[in-house]
Design goal:
single chain
Length: 273
C-alpha cells in the first residue's frame, strides 16, 4: 500500500510541472533521473548478453516510454483517479488472459460495468483524447507486464530494468526537449522532477520487492488493485479533483474486478515504471 500511495503522490506532484514542461518534458525528467539512479545502483553491462535478451530490453524500454508518456498526457486532460482506472484495464486484461476460471466472466462484467459508467462522461465532462490516452497507457502497461517477466528471467537484479530505462530516456529525449525547452535546466523544476522519479519509481520498486518477500503473489495483486481508488483519493486531496457519484461507483467496480481477477490469477500487477 505504501508503494501504491507513493506512485500516486508522485503522479500528483508531476502534474505541477505540466505548465512549464508539458507532459513530455515532465516524463523525460522522471525517466531520466530514474535511469540515472538505476544505472548507478545496478551498473548494467551489455557484455555476454544474448541478442534475444537485448531485444527484449529494448522492447521493454519502448513500452516504458509509451506507457509513461501516454499516461502523463492523459493526466493533463482528465482527473488522476479516472486516468488510473482506465489505465488499469491493461493489467486487468493480462490477469484475465492468464486464467481460465469461470469466475473470470464475473470480473469482466464488473470491469465492463465500470467502463460503461464512465462512458457518458467521455462525451461530457471527460476529455475524449485524455480517455483514449489513458487506455493507450493501459495497453503499454499490459506489454510492460509481459516483457517484465522475460526481463526478470534474462537479467539479474535490476540490470534489465536499468537498460530499459536508458532506452526509454533516449526515446523520450526529442519530445521532452521540444516540450520543456530551456525550462529543463531550471534547478527548481529539476528538483521536483527528481522527487517525482523517486516517488514514482525508486521508492515503490523497493517497497514492492520487500512486500513480495512477505506476501503471496495473489495477495500482492489484490492490494495493487487498490491503485485506482488511491489515485482518486490523492486526486481529491492533493489536486482538488472532485468525482461524481457515477465515477466513484465506476472506480469501485474496476477495483473489485481487478482484485478478483488478480487474486484468481495469482500474479502481481507491476506499477508504472
Amino acid at each position: 500500500m505504501g508503494a501504491v500511495a507513493s506512485v500516486q503522490v508522485g503522479a500528483a506532484i508531476a502534474t505541477t510541472l505540466f505548465d512549464e514542461l508539458g507532459p513530455a518534458g515532465t516524463v523525460l525528467l522522471r525517466t531520466g533521473f530514474a535511469a540515472l539512479v538505476l544505472v548507478l545502483l545496478w551498473r548494467p553491462s551489455l557484455r555476454g548478453r544474448s541478442t534475444v535478451a537485448l531485444r527484449d530490453a529494448v522492447l521493454f524500454g519502448l513500452a516504458l516510454a509509451g506507457m509513461n508518456l501516454s499516461f502523463y498526457a492523459a493526466l493533463d486532460r482528465i482527473p488522476l483517479g479516472i486516468a488510473v482506472t482506465l489505465e488499469f484495464t491493461g493489467p486487468f486484461l493480462v490477469a484475465v488472459a492468464g486464467s481460465r476460471r469461470a469466475s473470470d466472466l464475473l470480473w469482466v462484467a464488473l470491469a465492463a460495468g465500470g467502463i460503461v459508467l464512465l462512458a457518458p462522461g467521455i462525451h461530457g465532462s471527460l476529455d475524449v483524447t485524455g480517455s483514449l490516452l489513458a487506455l493507450l497507457a493501459g495497453a503499454f502497461w499490459a506489454a510492460y507486464i509481459v516483457l517484465a517477466a522475460r526481463i526478470g528471467r534474462a537479467f539479474s537484479g535490476g540490470q534489465g530494468l536499468s537498460i530499459a530505462m536508458v532506452v526509454a530516456t533516449v526515446v523520450l529525449l526529442p519530445s521532452g526537449i521540444v516540450a520543456g525547452g530551456s525550462d529543463l535546466g531550471d534547478p527548481g523544476l529539476l528538483a521536483v522532477g527528481f522527487a517525482v522519479a523517486l516517488l514514482s519509481s525508486a521508492i515503490p520498486y523497493s517497497l514492492e520487492l520487500e512486500a513480495l518477500r512477505r506476501l503471496p503473489k495473489g495477495t500482492f495483486g489484490v492490494l495493487m488493485s487498490m491503485e485506482p481508488a488511491v489515485a482518486a483519493l490523492v486526486g481529491l486531496i492533493a489536486l482538488g479533483q472532485d468525482l461524481s457519484a457515477n465515477e466513484v461507483v465506476a472506480i469501485g467496480l474496476v477495483v473489485a474486478a481487478s482484485a478478483g481477477a488478480l487474486s484468481a490469477a495469482g500474479t502481481p500487477a507491476p506499477v508504472e515504471a
